[in-house]
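A favour, since you know our structure tokens better than I do. Could you add the entry underneath, on a fresh line?
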Amino acid sequence: MMPRAVTLSALRTLSIALMAGVSLSTVAQAQTAPPAVAPTGQTTPTVRSGANTPVFVIDGTGGGRIVGSGELGGLEVYNLDGERTGAIEAGDVAGVDVRYGVQVGGRSTTVLGAMDSRGGRLRFFSFDAATGEAAEITAGPISAGLSGESLCLYRSPLDRTLYAFALGGGGEIEQWSIFDNGAGKLDGRLVRRLHIASEASYCTVDDASGALYVSEQSIGVWRFDADPEAETIPTLIDAVRLGRMTEEVGGVGLYDGGPGARYLIASNASASTFHLYDRSADDAFVGSFAVTGVDNAGGLFATSAAGGLLLAQDDDNPGGTNYKLARFADVATALKLTVGIPQDPRVPPASPMATVQAVAETDPVDQGGDAADDPAIWIDPANPANSLIIGTDKQAGLGVYDLSGKRVHFAADGKMNNVDLRDGFRLGGKLVTLVAASDRTHNAIALYVLDPATRALIPVSDGVQPTGLGDPYGLCLYRSRKGGKTYVFINDTDGRMRQWRLVETRAGGKVRAQLVREFAFPSQTEGCVADDDTGVLYVAEEDVALYRMSAEPNGGVARTVVTSVATNPALKDDLEGVSIYRQPGGRGYLVLSSQGNNSYALFRREGDNAYVGSFAIIADGAAGVDGASETDGLDVTSAPMGPAFPQGALVVQDGRNVSPPQTQNFKIVPWDRIVDSLKLKD
């Protein structure tokens, strides 16, 4: 029989392994001492015996300089022999990071970002790695609302926007957009706030994948999506006690040796070891190692440049706190890994798609959570610049906004989910703009007339117009060329869809609905749009495909797939809002919201609806208009709407109104920006 102590130890190890999802082979590896690599050099101790995070800044010759945070000593600069070659006054520096090719004053600039813990200030410096010269380029005080612990930088692959993540002692994580203020200086605007339970100590970002890694000292290592429009759901990579971390987590760094050699490195500070994770395998644990003589490592940095380097802070260096240098090739040999091929950090990752910026956004809706949903654009024939946007608040009613985004009217009539409109509906002896909405409060069709003089919505339903559906959801209108009859389509969350004809009551002045057709889809649908010129109805089955079918009441149930999630890699479910940009001669475009990847796909209106391209709506930091994400409904028009929108506009719901963090709203994008971005020829 085994000795009791051995049995209990084995059971305890097995219990921890099961709770952390660790394989028995990994546990066996963890019970043996990790291999140690010898440092190849070290820097001169910091002037004020304080250190935190280092970076290696490459120059144009394959060499470069080490820049380390020296706390009260500011930023200290070293050559690869570890000799101090200079210092940069930057306050009480708790962290530093670097990005290349940032446009500042029209010049491509290597930018150092530093966290000055005095007031949690973000400070930025241009840096020449060849000469070691630096100059502060911060426009003015950029103060994060936290006690500054560290920072890391992120360069978005979408549009090369620079962001800074500021970490706080209370677990706060603030993301700031950093931009040229037009005078050759960098300014900042708060984009969003993330949070963990306790002190956020260190962070690093992989620009290509958008993975933000944050070290929570007493808990573990978290991964967030660095995209400011992304969902803020963290993933725990490793944990203290229940995972492989002993008591305290230190710094985190990234090594990029190309495909098959991309690693996350995290300091298991209290055990004076480092853990390696495979970033191409969802950050799966690879192994552990130590650097001889490095104890209680805090900040660290890794790069495949300069032959592959690992820099680690050493708090317990006998001569004073400093940074140790190790060859990553020695780490890879010890763990039987490949070092890959050196990657140049000055070369940005390829942008995954085209981008545009909104020029305006509407006032946020009054309700929190998932509230704003679907817009409809009304063109003022007398003065296109006075055109309006009607947007649903699916918790409260319908808002009316001018083109600056100001709300000018609100109809608090219940949970309105989708909205559409048609001009030229004959009511009470005159032609009016008829507005229809799916009313989830009363399971009905809500009907209004838009008064162009007062900009108000006037109810015209002949009493409640019931849908007979369990949950009326998506809605769109159709004006048939056969006699000019007007119809409304509403679908249910169960896939059913019904079509009604809208008619004036005998007494006049009111509108009622007559059911004319019913059909169904296999699963949930919402977004739909009807092409009045061609008599085609487009419907988005959220998890599956966009379809086209007849919009006529006698058109039957036959439908054709326009595009699908399974066949078009540019799409990611849910497929949501859809609208038509109409051009003469039956030409134009379908615009479809691909909610799962925060993008918008264009298809030809004519022919077989061929796919044209996709784009994302990104933030304009200088203007203070954030991007758009998780879009439900959208609308588009080709009608000119004044000088700001000469070719019309796209209006989209923004599911995460992040800068500043507010309730949801709608973003307004001039169509000519989409033309330029996708290089459309017509």
In short: The longest helix spans residues 4-20. Residues 373-609 form a domain with the Neuraminidase fold (CATH 2.120.10.30). The chain is about 5% helix and 50% strand. The two ends are 83 Å apart (CA to CA).
